[in-house]
Amino acid sequence: MRIKAKSKGDKTEVKVMMKHPMLSYREAKKKGKEANFIVYVTAKNEGALVYEVSTSQFLSKNPYMKFYFKGGKKGEEVEITWVDLKGKTKTGKAKIK
User: Fold this and answer.
1) Domains in the chain, ordered, with CATH?
2) Do residues 80 and 92 touch, judged by C-beta distance below 8 A?
3) Residue ranges in the chain assigned as alpha helix (H)
């Protein structure tokens, strides 16, 4: 997972690329595999939830997300966590610049 966070005034911009194959039901059937894609993403700033989204199979392989939240100062930490259809989770952290 690659995360970039940058403070701009009273907002923080976060860009994240999540490494995941994102196999939809149709693609999985064609390949003879089991469907698996990211279904839930959260972001925290210093322990406080600042972003939460439920996703579906519409996202492409290695999905990229960009979002903003109020607050966040240089040097603080942003933590991104995703959960896929099989229940696997991955967490990444980055310092706000």
Assistant:
1) 2-95 (2.60.40.10)
2) yes
3) 25-31
